[in-house]
Amino acid sequence: MADSDELRGRLAALETELVHIPSLDPRGLEAAEVRLLGRKQGALTEILKLLPGLPPDQRRTVGGEANRLKQVLEAAVVARKAELAQAATAAAARGLDLTMPGRLRHGGGVHPVTTVVEEIVAIFHGLGFARAGGPEAETEWYNFGALNFPPDHPAMDLHDTLYLDIPDRRGPAERRRNRSSGVASDFERRDLSDRREREQGRWLLRTHTSPVQIRVLQQEPPPVRVVIPGWVYRKDTFDASHAPVFAQIEGLAVDEGITFVDLKATLSHFAREFFGARTSVRFRPSFFPFTEPSAEMDVSCGVCGGKGCPACKGTGWMEILGAGMVHPTVLANCGVDPERYTGFAFGMGPGRIALNRYGIPDIRLLYEGDMRFLQQFGLRAPGELA
Ligand code: DAH
């Protein structure tokens, strides 16, 4: 025997659902229609099925309330459907499809090599060094000759340097057109610049950022203080410790009265800023064609504090950069008077520094773009909301 009070309670509960209907989305509305009004198991259908079990007078009043609620609910569903259909039509007219799933946002992050480059540039910025840049396709003159490499230097060897095969871009029609003209034609002008290019030697992908020292000194007279981050190329097989393309940061300071003391003080300050105040540095004599004297700088190993560990191969030191006093011939090659000006230069590999700092065992991880690696530095995979 059904209980009229219980059925009234269930009707009252259903009535509260009315307020939600005007804000349902298409999928929610469809679900609500099935749940409330469905012919088989809809909540209202269930109540109507129980009516015959009530005494006749109660059956009439409860039945009347149930039917009224049924009509109200049906009307609300129909009204919401019409509203949604209208919104969809309006959106479609503006080229929108409201049923398409939303786009996932890709969260960005900064690559570890970029982080290291920006920190290094910022430290030198604080010391008055500006940021400079230069082309990745260079001539033999800029990459080697102007930097005082002897003409037969092994670095110029095909095994180390990637040479560019730059084709003659002039078409046959252009050559013919220019041949008979009286004035200096584009063709002749281009011939002149071709000759200049021949004097510059072959085209290549720069093997270091040092050629930008030449370009900077040619463009502005001293005093000059610049740091030059950039990509460099070498004909190396991609393995755990070599990449055919990698990042370098070059530094150059040229002014009156610059000495090796400025070099040591500047680079020691940099090391303590970047690696921490307790870092020790040491300079070892070295050789580069474009500096004299030349040195390499080591910093105490950040992993073991200098005691010796696998990261520093037991030595307690990590080699960080090459440096030296700019060779007088290099200054003269740029039109700078070596009697009046002196300078120091340095070059380092931020990729190697990133490997050390983050304990990354293989340089390929830096350049392969594997999301599983990059996510550890703040890059998020598609689907993860930022
Ligand atoms: N260009 C050198 C290299 O690629 C690095 C270097 C060493 C740059 C000493 C310098 C320097 O400016 O003074 O290995």
SSE series = HHHHHEEHHHEHEEHEEEHEHHH
Number of separate domains: 2
Q: Which spans have pLDDT < 50 for at least 5 consecutive residues?
A: 168-185
Using the CA coordinates, give the radius of gyration: 38 Å
The CATH superfamily of the largest domain is Bira Bifunctional Protein, Domain 2
Instruction: Indicate the overall shape.
Output: elongated
Number of strands: 9
Please estimate the helix content: 40-55%
Largest sheet: 7 strands, mixed
Describe the structure.
The protein has 386 residues and is α+β, with helices and mostly antiparallel strands. It folds into two domains: 4-93; 112-136 and 206-377, Bira Bifunctional Protein, Domain 2 (BirA Bifunctional Protein, domain 2, 2-Layer Sandwich), CATH 3.30.930.10. The protein contains 14 helices and nine strands. The protein has helices at residues 4-16, 26-37, 43-50, 56-93, 112-125, 140-143, 172-179, 186-199, 211-219, 260-275, 328-333, 350-358, 364-367, 371-374, and strands at residues 130-131, 137-139, 203-205, 224-233, 245-255, 281-288, 291-300, 317-326, 342-348. It has a seven-stranded mixed sheet with strand order 1-4-5-9-8-7-6, with helices on both faces. Strands 2-3 form a two-stranded antiparallel ribbon. Helix 1 runs parallel beside helix 4 (56-93) and helix 2 (26-37) packs antiparallel against helix 4. The chain is elongated, with a radius of gyration of 38 Å. The relative contact order is 0.11. Residues 208, 210, 250, 288, 291, 322-324, 345-347 line the site of 3,4-dihydroxyphenylalanine.
